[in-house]
Structure prediction request, 192 residues.
Amino acid sequence: MLPVSLPLQGVIGGSLLLGIAWLASPEVLGLGKETIQRALEGGTIVWALILGENTRHRFNPQYCGKRGIVLPICFIGATTGSALGWLLGYDPSLLAALGLTGLLVGAINTPITAMILVLELFALASGPYLLLNCTIAFLLSGHRSAIPRQLLQFTKAPALQASINQEIGELGNMKTDTQKKIKEINKQEKTN
Prediction:
């Protein structure tokens, strides 16, 4: 491997990623608003677009920091839900809405905001499904958030030990009661 300076590595890597994204679909280079709308309307989405956009966000985390995190989360949730709808034979627009809201609640950890957004954006007929989806995603996400400065107001489950009114990003290595008990048992076995 040739020694290449760090800035040159960035230029080469960015150029390769840009070229691959453009070859897959020029839409990958945009924000994805049109694709989200198409997914929510039940339209077909190019698989290369889903893979390209997800890959771009995976390998370029700085993009999310400069452009925001909500739109990429909505894109990934809506397109994945729509794709599952097409694969499983369900309404792709409903599954796109479920994917968007579920990922938004799970990643940002704001259930009330997401529920208000759901009721405003989507028809009331799908409201109960979407609200249930928000609740389940919120409970299953644990004490994690894409917004590390968010304050933890309450614990979601008795097994999750965390300090209240602490930033979620500072929680770091939370241990469940079971993990703590296993660690204690292992310590006792080592001393015996």
User: Anything to note?
Assistant: The mean pLDDT is 76. The chain has two domains: 18-141, 146-192.
